[in-house]
Amino acid sequence: MTMTSRHTTEWIKYLAVALICALVAIDGIGLVMANTTRTSGQQMEDSTTDVPRLVIKSDSVASRLGGYHGILAFLHNFAVPALLADGEIVAFFGNLTVTPDDIEQCLAMMLDHDLGGSSPHSGAVVESGHKCRGSMPKIHKGRNIPDRTISRFIQIISEQAALAGVSKADIKAIAKALEQNRAGIRNK
Ligand code: HEM
């Protein structure tokens, strides 16, 4: 065998290996796409088309909402303005013992925690120095918040989450997390 033909054989070998790698890579991506379509039940529930997605789904509601900071931004920009624009809700927000910022930050942490995030449920010290309380009856004591106002509160937050582009499944999870506090808040 001449030098040139030996080199040609070597190059053919390299090309064959490269071709196999390329095929495996393409097939791998195909597999990921197929799996995403089949297994992301929640996402596909809301989707009207069967277009495969390359974005791998985050595994907790909190992470999909952007964790503590995403939830805080949602509360500040969407939920709180809508809540305070509602006559029935705003009537209960007089004589505050903490600032609206404290309420937003403590509620954002509580929600992040309850939706699978890394924030503590309560006890954290926020920017102002306020320490978030955990007891719903104590926080809402003396406010006499009726059942229907709690429902309205949850409904407004859900509506705002929909406007902010949160998926139906995640809105359900947010409403459920809020709902769990109903008995501790009602008529205290
Ligand atoms: C449904 C679920 C609810 C949750 C999870 C929740 C949670 C919280 C949290 C975490 C705080 C801040 C606590 C702190 O200062 O450390 C807070 C404060 C407050 N919440 Fe709620 N809340 C809920 C519903 C409501 C409703 C329906 C109303 C009234 C319509 C309300 C009225 C208030 C008021 C007035 C404060 C401030 C209390 C104060 O100044 O001492 N909350 N809430």
- Residue-averaged pLDDT, rounded? 86
Order of helices and strands: HHHHHHHHHH
> What small molecules does this complex bind?
protoporphyrin IX containing FE
Looking at this structure, what is the CATH superfamily of the largest domain?
Globins
Specify the number of helices. Answer: 10
Strand content: under 5%
- Overall, the morphology is elongated
Query: Could you say which structural class the secondary elements and strand pairing correspond to?
Result: mainly alpha
Write the CATH fold name of the largest domain. Answer: Globin-like
Instruction: Domain count, please report it.
Output: 2
Evaluate the radius of gyration: 26 Å
CATH class of the largest domain: Mainly Alpha
Structure summary, number of beta strands: 0
CATH architecture of the largest domain: Orthogonal Bundle
Which segments are poorly predicted (pLDDT under 50) over 5 or more consecutive residues? 29-46
Distance between the termini: 94 Å
The major β-sheet equals:
none
Proportion in helices: 55-70%
Molecular structure report:
- The protein is mainly α and 188 residues long.
- It has 2 domains: 3-46; 61-185, Globins (Globin-like, Orthogonal Bundle), CATH 1.10.490.
- It is 64% helix and 0% strand.
- The chain has 10 helices and no strands.
- It has helices at residues 3-39, 41-46, 61-64, 67-84, 87-90, 100-114, 136-139, 147-163, 168-179, 182-185.
- Helix 8 runs antiparallel to helix 9.
- It is elongated and about 90 Å long.
- Residues 89, 92-93, 96-98, 102-103, 106-107, 110, 132-133, 139-140, 143, 145, 149-150, 153-154, 178, 181, 185 line the site of protoporphyrin IX containing FE (HEM).
